[in-house]
Design goal:
homopentamer; about 350 residues; alpha+beta; seven-stranded mixed sheet; 7 strands
Chain lengths: ~350, ~350, ~350, ~350, ~350
């Protein structure tokens, strides 16, 4: 929540500038920008971390698949250089730098531009963190730009290095798919965490709701809202990629995109179920409070209604009238106690009948 | 609920692996895998339980209809063997093994792949259990893969064995329809159970709601959420099958699919009505609580307001002032009691007027 | 509610049987099956109650319009005979016998099959009753099958007998329309009843809500749910009939179908308004309860807060300390009473200021 | 509300009659039927109130534009005469007489039939009243049929009489548009009234909600429901007129219809905003009640919890035990009072800490 | 809210006038009308504030791009003059003057008409203010008409003056885009303000909700409703501009419109999230109230239930019966105190067990 508003704040700073003006909008999440590339075909593999982006421009002309990964967005000049080299539209560069993007894809004949949200669970402050990943998918290259070091692509790298599966035999479009698939698959991990949280809060709600429970339900609700905002547009995005008639996506990759699409639907379904559960939890929380209050009220009622009449009887015989015959009786005291007992007994029976006890 | 999250947990283990990697995701519900086949045409019938999947590969080339049923998912190698023999796409095999699928169908020219959820009511823990059934429908074979032994296909088997109805005269597509129909028909049994539960909870809510009632309403709500997730996609699935232009589904089978479609709509309608009823029950539950509290409050109010003024009068004549003329009067005590009686009577009349009694 | 679940229960008994198996599903509402027919053209009219269905098969070959009406569903053999004679698809016969159908229409070139819900208001238990009516509309015949004797077709019969309006001049499609129109028109009668009920409950809610009011609101809500289930599919059904390109429906009948369609929309609109009103009533009911409790609370507060301090003062002078100078004063008693009066007056003024009185 | 149900009641009387039977359904709002006509072209104008409908049939053959206005629906014969003369379909006549129509338009080659709801604000009982207006738009005539005398067409008449704007230069379709526009424009007046009402109720809710406020919110809600029912179908109606390919509507009129359409959307938007506001008001009303109750509770709690312990102390020293050393002490009384003071002070400080004071 | 109703009020004054009648509807927000123009091409720039609108009519014939800006709507004659010169349809002029318009665009071959809402945050009364901006986009001119001096176009002007970006090289359609973009970009600033407000109210709700908090939530809700009304139609508007086949919008501008469209979706998404959050806040507010009341209730219950029985015991030994053996006992007083202590202790332990302490 804090983050989002901050994004909007930064976004608003740019209001009125000419379109295509490159300004990094969002938190600066990395100190230095890290550039790595992997260049491969079925036989060969070349991998390097470089400091000068120009080092990897050589691969543009080669038939091999090149994956350029950039971690960190604050070096605007680097992004500009990249844009010039790969002939990216200025608005694309703007979108890359502005981390408040909605997941979307755009088809510019020569390349496809995809923006996604990569989720990670920050154990320290127990919250889901959202990072923007931009992908530029060309005929023989994929450029991925992330906000900071650390991602969910490790297994993709391992598969390329180890030549596992079909990845080394396929083109850049398959690599693009593999990266999207890795991001989407990671959502399951996040959903699992959320599912555990929901379960534990649910148990708390049913067993022993405290004021803190309300806060937790509220924070779950907010997480769901922000998760939804990241995942819903994915559906459209991936079905758009499937339907797109771009030459960049080969027909053989379509079935893999269909698979990612199915996963996205599954994730959306699960989020919707979670939302239903969370709002159900609020109802239960409120009912539990009412129930508790009810219980407290009952005890008050019973004790008060039991003793108020008895105290009244005691009050009567505490009066100082001169002529109160009962006070002189030998068994007056005992009789008074007896009257009290009988009154108390009648009331107890009445309460039990009413099922208040 | 527990189950679902566990599925997600397992699902997340696979995140990042190359697509088509065969890993069984879900609970291991069976100890050993059981394979059976039935091969039939209008005249002949052959049925056997086998331990080696290869035994039934012979039927692939024959014109008879072959139904291969596999109970248990954990023998990954068997599934791979099956996939190789029937040329199933690796992603299909992955979907079969991953029990967190959403009901769907996919049309690969040579075969149609259908994933469904089979429901069963577990009497022991009074909960609806969900089991994934995958169907592969080819030109002359149907492969059904379940999570464990025990299903709703018994009557279909009996009809094949006894040559009842038209099943022996029809092709593999009719067998496929018969299996889907059996699963959908079984939903009515589950709905009946749920309907009874809803009715009994409803009676409880109206008559004597306890804190336990709230739990039951909540668990009904959750069952509805999970049921909905299984049934809603069915609508799309079956209308997709109807509209599909696959050669595997003959025109004569269309009317039967239309029938299943109608049943699905009926089931969805009923679930939606149930949902309405359950959320209505929560309102009534909360109102009942309020009503009860109201009743308790009234009794408290009446007793307290009756006796508090009377006790005050008694308190006055319990004071020890030297000069209190009333205390000396001959009929002071009687007068005090009379005053109390009159006050009490006035209040009772007032309460009755206000309809609090 | 009870009824519906019972239908589902019976429905579930059939699960797994081959499609087209004829079993009557639903309550047996009639003792004996009653068959009547009316055969007419512009000049002639023949009408008879028969016991053997075969008696009316003769008319099939004649150019006159024949209306065969069957009251009662439990004679499965009769339905089979009918099916054989008029070449009805087994699934249609199944739908006729299964009273849990959703309103729908199906176009089999030679005839059109329509399922509808006929409503009637049972005065005895003040509830809306739902009866399934199946219509089979052929080139020169209409077969109507009801669950029991007693329907809303009386005026249609009178119009045929009296040759009122254009009915005798038109074909079977117009007769079909007239029957559907009679059923839909009857919904207005039911809505009127419901409207009256809603109004009377509304008055009660505003004036003097009791616990019973809640039950009534709840039962209205349930009636609305079941009514909606019967009426909503009608819209689709009738617009489907309009759009259908069947030769059985002449162009001249289209405008009449449009009229029925308008009525259906009007009914749906009214039901939706009623739903809004009923859910509004629940809000008001709950607010009224709160308001009442509030009023009760106020009285308690005022009496308690008035007398508790006064009683405390009395309690002080009821203490038995030896040295309490006030007790010896000549006007001590009067002063104590005065103090109490002043305290009470101050509090009353405070309460009035706060608008609690 | 009352009115609507009455309409349904009357409607249900007709159930089962042959379609096209002319019966006036609705309240009889006028004593005598009033017929007026205006016949005009760019140069000439003729205007007259007539008693015999036949007087205006002469204009049918002339090229001038004729506007026939009928106030009052109960003279069924007159409507029949009109229908015969202008060749109106019996179902149209039926719709004119039945005031429970939903706004709609129907295109019969020779004329277009439009039903609308004209709203007026009845100052006497502070409610929005709904009147049905039917328009029949032919090549050179417009017939408008209202339920009673008094309408929103005065300015249209003035424009025709004074030859203001382009109305005298245009055809019958422009006149039809002008009438529809006058009705739609009038909705803004009604919305203004409703807006004022909402504002005043809103102020009341925030400042000093009473039980009456709840009634007002409820009645606003009901007005909104009925307004919505009148306005929503308008959208469809007008966009239908725009898209209709009837020769009766000239292309030059299209832009004016687009303008009315925009107004309709604006009205619908405003109604939806009002609905949101009204339902928000209910929430605030309920919260205000809770807040008030809370305030009352607090006072009770504070006074009760202050005095109950003090009264207990007084009660102890009111006991008549023979051996109670404190009673004999010289400063016992003063000490007891001091103890009470201290206890009261501690509690007051505690309450202030808890922010209950 | 106030403003809107006033607009409707003014709008209703016009009801019935002929369409195209020019009356300024809305608040008069400026004293004098201010007219400025900027005329430019790649080399030259001319800019001037004029008092007579005719001064800028000369540019109409030139190939340069002319931007005419008018601040203030009440000079109806000026608008008419403009309309005559640029051949604008009377309904367009009417829309310009009527500030209650819904955002929309209309395509008249020769020019495109766009109505938008420009938001500004009034710091003085902490509310979002809405101003209508009309744009007329011709082949080589853009006319912008605002309600008053002061807008969000300053940076666009600076870019034209300083020849920054591509604006001086592009045509009138790019200028039109730039103005729309400036308005949409400004929404982010407003959303940021709202986000901050929501956050601060949210903190208040969780920490220390007061009655004022409820007012704030309510006013946020209303702001959201009015914001939504301004922004939702934008989506349609801009996608309409994109899809329009008007020659006035060059293909090269399409990608910029797509960018604005993305921003609009982002703004709508954010508003929806805000709405979710605000309605969540109301739930939390109400829960907090319940929780507080609960806490107050508990204290009352505990103190009351502790002392009521003790006071009763004291009352018993305050009775004046002659024969009460306990009163004579040497340790009677001590025993009574002990009994009280034990009773109090038992109750305290019970309360702690029940977790009420």
């Amino acid at each position: 929540m804090l983050r989002k508003n901050r994004t909007i704040k930064k976004r608003s700073r740019k209001a009125g500038l000419p379109p295509g003006t490159l300004v990094h909008i969002g938190e600066k999440k990395a100190e230095t920008v890290r550039i790595t590339y992997i260049d491969y075909d079925e036989q060969n593999l070349q991998e390097k971390q470089i400091t000068n982006i120009e080092e990897c421009f050589q691969f543009k002309a080669m038939p091999t698949v090149t994956w350029i990964n950039i971690d960190g967005l604050h070096d605007v000049e680097l992004i500009e250089q990249l844009g010039r080299q790969f002939e990216l539209h200025p608005l694309i560069l703007e979108d890359i730098l502005n981390t408040g993007q909605r997941p979307k894809f755009e088809d510019f004949e020569k390349y496809i531009f995809v923006v996604l949200k990569m989720l990670s669970y920050n154990v320290a402050n127990q919250a889901v963190e959202i990072e923007q990943v931009s992908l530029v998918l060309g005929a023989n290259f994929v450029i991925s730009i992330q906000e900071r070091v650390g991602d969910v692509f490790q297994q993709v790298r391992d598969r390329i290095r180890g030549a596992k599966g079909r990845i080394r035999k396929m083109g850049a479009d398959y690599l693009g798919y593999a990266l999207i698939d890795a991001i989407v698959d990671n959502y399951f991990t996040i959903l699992e965490k959320l599912g555990q949280e929901i379960e534990s809060v649910e148990e708390e709600v049913v067993a022993e709701p405290t004021e803190n429970t309300l806060q937790q339900i509220h924070s779950l609700k907010r997480e769901m809202i922000s998760l939804r905002k990241s995942v819903w547009p994915l559906r459209e995005l991936i079905s758009g990629l499937q339907r797109s008639e771009s030459d960049l996506i080969k027909e053989s990759t379509d079935i893999y995109l269909k698979d990612v699409y199915d996963h996205t639907i599954q994730i959306i379904d699960t989020i919707e179920s979670f939302r239903d559960m969370v709002s159900g939890m609020l109802d239960i929380y409120l009912s539990s409070l009412s129930n508790k209050m009810n219980a407290v009220m009952k005890v008050l009622t019973i004790i008060a209604t039991l003793f108020i009449p008895l105290t009244f009887v005691a009050g009567i015989y505490g009066m100082n009238f001169k002529y109160m015959p009962e006070l002189e009786w030998r068994w007056g005291y005992a009789a008074a106690l007896l009257v009290m007992l009988v009154v108390a007994a009648i009331m107890l029976i009445y309460f039990r009948r009413k099922k208040w006890l």
